[in-house]
Write a structure and sequence with these properties.
By secondary structure, the protein is an alpha/beta fold. It has a domain at 2-137 and 169-194 and 258-271: Rossmann fold (3-Layer(aba) Sandwich). The protein has helices spanning 10-21, 37-40, 59-62, 78-92, 113-126, 148-154, 171-182, 202-213, 224-233, 238-253, 262-266, 274-280, 282-285, and strands spanning 2-4, 26-30, 45-49, 67-70, 96-100, 131-137, 156-159, 165-166, 190-194, 200-201, 218-221. A 7-stranded parallel sheet has the order 3-2-1-4-5-6-9, with helices on both faces. α1 links the parallel β1 (2-4) and β2 (26-30). α4 packs parallel to α5.
Length: 290
Amino acid sequence: MILVTGAAGLSGSIVVRHFSRQKTKVRALVRNLEKARELETLPMIEVVQGDMLRPETLGPALQGVERVLMISSPNSQMLETQCTFIDACKKAGVQHIVKFSGFESGVDPKKFRFMRMHNEIEHYLENSGVAWTHLRPSQFMQVYLREAPAIAANGAIFLPMGNARLEPVDIEDIAKVAFSLLHSEGHEGKSYDMTGPESLTMTEVAEQISSAIGKPVRYVNVPPEDHRKMLLEHGLPSFLADGVYELFAERRGRPDQPVLLATHELFGVRPTTFAEFACRNAAVSRGEKL
């Protein structure tokens, strides 16, 4: 049995849906069943409730599980949550944990809290005695869906990125890699970095969204502190807003980085271009599915 944690979140739900499309059984761990009602309707998906931070709730989730794709929310408890869960997996006899981690070339983990936490979790897993693999995607293309309200209302993307370039990757591609990784052998003790197939400025991102929706979209470079304030005004917890602030500060100052497609190639996954992603989600960017 394979278990996917964080299954009600953005990444976890995309992975679980891919399992369902492949007609392959998977167990999906969620904290809140109300947020997972749609997953319960999918073929081949067994939804179980439990809290990764509370091992006493994980008995049914871990029973008979051999492999785990470990995902959890990026919050102030991520380090404690995943390390506690690793211990629970070891006690339950799980043989292999694939950590859904994070990676961006040129970003200093000492200056970005979530990459630092990912690194500490990776180290803990490597020394746990459980077989491990790290899957390390770069920025998700899906983060630009968060800009949909501003695109629909103002025809603009407001981010503090200047002219820096990023290499966003489609989570659908990551899900395909994760599925293949979990169903093949020889990946223990390895790390797989992933980016998308293009290095793009925010102006180029805006242009591609504009082409997809048939309306002008411009990029507006905003001061970092203004962006942080906007996140707080929209209800983002200060810990997360500060983390985003740190990340953008690192991204603005880094040199251009190469695209990394070796993981796509190894697992036979064709890289999704940003233009394809933008077309697939054009209705969202137009404000039709907000």
